[in-house]
Amino acid sequence: MALVASVRVPARVLLRAGARLPGAALGRTERAAGGGDGARRFGSQRVLVEPDAGAGVAVMKFKNPPVNSLSLEFLTELVISLEKLENDKSFRGVILTSGACPAGGCLVALTCDYRILADNPRYCIGLNETQLGIIAPFWLKDTLENTIGHRAAERALQLGLLFPPAEALQVGIVDQVVPEEQVQSTALSAIAQWMAIPDHARQLTKAMMRKATASRLVTQRDADVQNFVSFISKDSIQKSLQMYLERLKEEKG
Amino acid sequence: MALVASVRVPARVLLRAGARLPGAALGRTERAAGGGDGARRFGSQRVLVEPDAGAGVAVMKFKNPPVNSLSLEFLTELVISLEKLENDKSFRGVILTSGACPAGGCLVALTCDYRILADNPRYCIGLNETQLGIIAPFWLKDTLENTIGHRAAERALQLGLLFPPAEALQVGIVDQVVPEEQVQSTALSAIAQWMAIPDHARQLTKAMMRKATASRLVTQRDADVQNFVSFISKDSIQKSLQMYLERLKEEKG
Amino acid sequence: MALVASVRVPARVLLRAGARLPGAALGRTERAAGGGDGARRFGSQRVLVEPDAGAGVAVMKFKNPPVNSLSLEFLTELVISLEKLENDKSFRGVILTSGACPAGGCLVALTCDYRILADNPRYCIGLNETQLGIIAPFWLKDTLENTIGHRAAERALQLGLLFPPAEALQVGIVDQVVPEEQVQSTALSAIAQWMAIPDHARQLTKAMMRKATASRLVTQRDADVQNFVSFISKDSIQKSLQMYLERLKEEKG
Question: The whole model's pTM is what?
Answer without folding.
Answer: 0.87
